[in-house]
Design brief:
Number of strands: 9
Structural class: alpha/beta
Largest sheet: 5 strands, mixed
CATH architecture: Alpha-Beta Complex
Shape: globular
CATH class: Alpha Beta
Distance between the termini: 49 Å
Radius of gyration: 19 Å
Strand content: 15-25%
Strand order of the largest sheet: 5-6-7-8-9
Oligomer: single chain
Number of helices: 12
Number of domains: 1
Helix content: 40-55%
Length: about 260
């Protein structure tokens, strides 16, 4: 059994079945359990976490590109089922009408860009080997440091987890991005939830411009840094959302 943030108790197996539904996973469970994404928001600011949880978050182009790339590789049926509109701009009347009709649409350019990335990825033998004989989009739920967490592994193989990323400057900035966007949190959480060691986690990143592919393994230092951040984020959550300290009293302080 696992107790969620709203106080409800679930059998883990029942919860995992429900998590197969995107509506449940990204809807109800996004507020009833923490995740690597929610911890990143907490580390940014508890106010950011509160606002995104309550009002949602605008979808960036990077997120759209990343989602399409993921589905092109891991869920081609989902990719092919998307609505792609042949327009030059999302501000066009045709695009807006399609958006009203279908709720979620992409441009033909976004489709071509995702297919270009997927083709480069699938031509790389090393990258392809890392995702072979594996399950894709595998949900997981459990307790970490006494709190309920949800997750979904891009690729889960025998004794390995692989996460796919897109980037705009692989050689000079991916390692920086890994720190900036707290990929170490993801490493620690997923290894803990799937009960795997830190060196079982691998990131595969593809450069959206050059199509270069980078394969990055996780060090113990990276994993432990993620553990520190998870503890810090949980402390922030406890302070403002369990103890009920007024968010208006949150502030930053330093010396310039």
């Amino acid at each position: 059994m696992i107790t969620l943030l709203d106080g409800t108790q679930w059998n883990k197996e029942d919860l995992l079945k429900e998590m197969q539904s995107d509506e449940f996973y990204y809807g109800y469970l996004s507020k009833a359990a923490l995740s690597s994404s929610s911890l990143k928001l907490l580390l940014t600011s508890p106010k950011t976490y509160y606002n995104v949880t309550k009002y949602g978050n605008a979808e960036s182009q990077a997120l759209r590109d990343g989602w399409l790339f993921h589905t092109a590789i891991l869920e081609p049926d989902v990719f092919n089922a998307q609505v792609f509109v042949d327009v030059e701009s999302k501000n066009s009347k045709t695009y807006k009408i399609a958006l009203e009709q279908h709720g979620k649409v992409f441009t033909k350019k976004e489709k071509r860009d995702a297919e270009r990335l997927a083709d480069a990825f699938l031509r790389n033998e090393k990258a392809l080997k890392l995702i072979q004989d594996s399950e894709f989009e595998v949900p997981v739920v459990g307790e970490v440091m006494g709190m309920p967490f949800r997750g979904k592994a891009d690729v889960l193989g025998k004794n390995r987890i692989v996460d796919l990323k897109t980037t705009t400057d692989l050689k000079s900035s991916f390692k920086y991005s890994a720190q900036k966007f707290s990929y170490d949190v993801q490493c620690y959480l997923y290894c803990t939830l799937f009960d795997l060691p830190y060196d079982a986690f691998t990131f595969i990143a593809i450069d959206k411009k050059s199509l270069d592919i980078g394969i990055y393994h996780c060090s113990e230092e990276f994993y432990l840094k993620g553990k520190e951040k998870v503890a810090e984020a949980i402390k922030i959550y406890d302070t403002f959302f369990l103890q009920g300290v007024d968010l208006d009293q949150y502030y930053l302080e330093g010396i310039l």
